[in-house]
Design a protein that fits this description.
Blueprint (H helix, E strand, L loop, with lengths): L34 E5 L7 H14 L4 E5 L7 H4 L16 E3 L2 E4 L16 H14 L7 E5 L6 H9 L4 E6 L3 H17 L3 E6 L4 E2 L6 E2 L6 H9 L3 E4 L4 H9 L3 H4 L4 H24 L20
Bound molecules: adenosine-5'-triphosphate (ATP), magnesium ion and zinc ion (ZN).
Length: 305
Amino acid sequence: MSDSPEPTQDAGAPPAALPGRPIAPNDPVPGAKNIVLVMSGKGGVGKSTVAANLALALNRSGYRVGLLDADIYGPSVPTMLGITGQPMSDGQKIQPLQRFGVKLMSIGFLLEDNKAAVVWRGPMLQGAVVQFLKDVAWGELDYLLLDLPPGTGDVALTLSQQVRSSGAVMVTTPEEVALQDVYKAVSMNQKVGIPITGVIENQSYFICDGCDKKHFLFGEGGGQKIAEMAGAPLLGQLPLDPTVRQWGDAGTPVVQAAPQSSIAQAFQKIAEQLVERLAEANRSSAGAPTIDRSGGVNRHLPITR
Ligand SMILES: Nc1ncnc2c1ncn2[C@@H]1O[C@H](COP(=O)(O)OP(=O)(O)OP(=O)(O)O)[C@@H](O)[C@H]1O
Ligand SMILES: [Mg+2]
Ligand SMILES: [Zn+2]
């Protein structure tokens, strides 16, 4: 697949009045109006799938979108977006790759052998994500989505200290075993002050081609429970749909590959709700003081560069 820049899709200019998050003087990505963490606490629930499809859905609505793969150990963006290649640097900033009009960065682009394991440890790992924010030429973006790794861990914590994100989208599947992990991630976000913008229940049901019924393979109501705990809306429920997996593996997320399909429309609707929720949050935080997240000039966070 090509890594050459493609023209961005011109689906009409985004509304000029799109409200953005408050941006402090030391913000690592001052050009990003919204930074959204796609996270879960639980592995394998569809974070990367949701992040990739939402990025494309937002792009198709005419917004300027970036997608940062914040999963250093298990990057999925190169496969799901069907892109490899070395990003160029001008000595100052790294140019993101671009696909379907979305700006992309992933550790996967920087590894010579994409099957090799990354052996970095904690501090380097945190440094890497923050560096991707700072050192990539993201330019002006309406939405920068971050595809977070599973777990509550270090990456979200570091991000909370280094950048004022707009909020987090929590992805969960309906079963109790997943919920236990997602509750922990919600609780951590609340502790570190990352607002939860909404909850997405993935793999909610399966529509059978034998009987046309919705089969609730993993139970019902899990997403709603997380939403209630988080005090955030359930933005949508996505079915288990084999085309999601097929298009993800093929490097063209279903929203791009089959935009008229009902699953693509479901993603598109969630993206619209996300836009509304973020705009609301930004309007209510406008005028609020911006918080210095540097830890103070005389304090040094344990970040390795
Ligand atoms: N709604 C869905 N229908 C069918 N397959 C899905 C759906 N959502 C995700 N998948 C598939 O499930 C697998 C795991 O999804 P994904 O990689 O997005 O999860 P993740 O939460 O990012 O995982 P990790 O914790 O490893 O980062 C992928 O193969 C993906 O294509
Ligand atoms: Mg993932
Ligand atoms: Zn059936």
